[in-house]
Amino acid sequence: MALLPALLLSAALSSLGWQSHVDASEWWSLALSPMQRPEAYLLSAQPLCQLVGLSPGQRKLCHLYQDHVPHIADGARLAVRECQHQFRTRRWNCSAGEGDSVFGRLTHIGSRETAFAHAISAAGVAHAVSRACREGELATCGCSRAPRPRELQRDWLWGGCGDNLEYGYRFAREFVDAREREQGGQQQQQQQQQQQQLAARHSVEHSRTLMNLHNNEAGRRAVYGLADVACKCHGVSGSCSLKTCWLQLADFRKVGKFLKEKYDSASAARAGRRAKLEPANRKFSPPSAGDLVYLDASPDYCVRNETTGSLGTIGRSCNKTSEGMDGCELMCCGRGYDHFKATVVERCNCKFHWCCYVKCKKCTSVVDRFVCK
């Protein structure tokens, strides 16, 4: 089973010292391709749901819903790809260093980037599970049972087989939030037992738990809120005299773009007295459930730093003519850039031939490339 080595990778990472109270989402390792980490095969004798990377609650869900696990992995991969797309022109481009887990040591810091990572990952699971329900791949769910929208025209039929957002949302909440909820309970017990000695440490841990839970929820809400009604026409010769409509997930690219905008407007927060997040600056309004929140300033992504997980921008491509973050001045952090010529081979002059194939020529061109020093 192709999924098993990817799951085993989580155990391998933990055995190498990757367990941490703030590295709360070891399940992200499901997104890694086993071909990238062949050493993961060495642990193939360990039972699937007894991996160190899964929390007790996640192990329980794994046992109860084994047919869901491939779709959790699909959601994790979907999230990583989308994260890398959205940040492809930023100093932090959502990639991890060699030997790291999916998002690397970055997640040890309660930064904007960690907030986005949690949100997009939770969104990926909700999206993948909702779609799997519709496609009949899960035993415990099927097509959406969402009520007919009030604004839908009366002569249109509400039916078809829609994406089951309700189920996807609920399952993603139970699985993704499991570790944080378990840690939250442990922290409360420990605070009562050793309140004076560990108060400061637990305050930090509790704040991170609240932050992660908040951003997980924001990701799921993005998937839920961006879903829309899709319709199909019926009638003689395409007259569309009748329509059948259903609830359909938005393309995940749209979800990624939406959460990227939330990242840019994320709110600095801190844990309040009532176990809730509140603005770090009391002059600002409290963040909504759909906003992203962070606790710590982002690290310097200009230079490589193994402690923070920053890979730096040396060797990154940049756009000489852009004044944005992808421009050489900002991307290279003022260090300058190298210019070279590159030969590019592309498909061109494509023509459709009846029936039914497309034939293209190969065109070669020389282009300018700019790379950060």
How would you concisely characterize the structure shown here?
The protein is built from nine helices and ten strands. By secondary structure, the protein is an alpha/beta fold.
What layout of secondary structure does this protein have?
Layout: H1 3-18, H2 56-64, H3 69-86, H4 112-134, E1 157-158, H5 165-176, H6 178-193, H7 195-226, E2 228-234, E3 242-248, H8 252-264, E4 267-271, E5 277-279, E6 293-294, E7 304-305, E8 310-311, H9 328-331, E9 337-353, E10 357-372
Parallel strand pairs: 1-3, 4-6
Antiparallel strand pairs: 2-3, 4-5, 7-8, 9-10
Helix pairs in contact: 3-4, 3-8, 4-5, 4-7, 4-8, 5-7, 6-7, 7-8
List keywords for this structure.
about 375 residues, disordered N terminus, Endo-n-acetylneuraminidase fold, 3-stranded mixed sheet
List the helices and strands in order: HHHHEHHHEEHEEEEEHEE
Major sheet, described briefly? 3 strands, mixed
Query: Could you give the count of β-strands?
Result: 10
Q: Helical element count?
A: 9
Low-pLDDT runs: 1-25, 35-47
Q: Provide mean pLDDT, rounded.
A: 82
The helix-and-strand class reads alpha/beta
Strand order of the largest sheet: 1-3-2
Strand content: 15-25%
The proportion of residues forming helix, as a percent range, comes to: 25-40%
- Overall 3D form: globular
Integer count of domains: 2
Radius of gyration: 23 Å
Distance between the termini: 43 Å
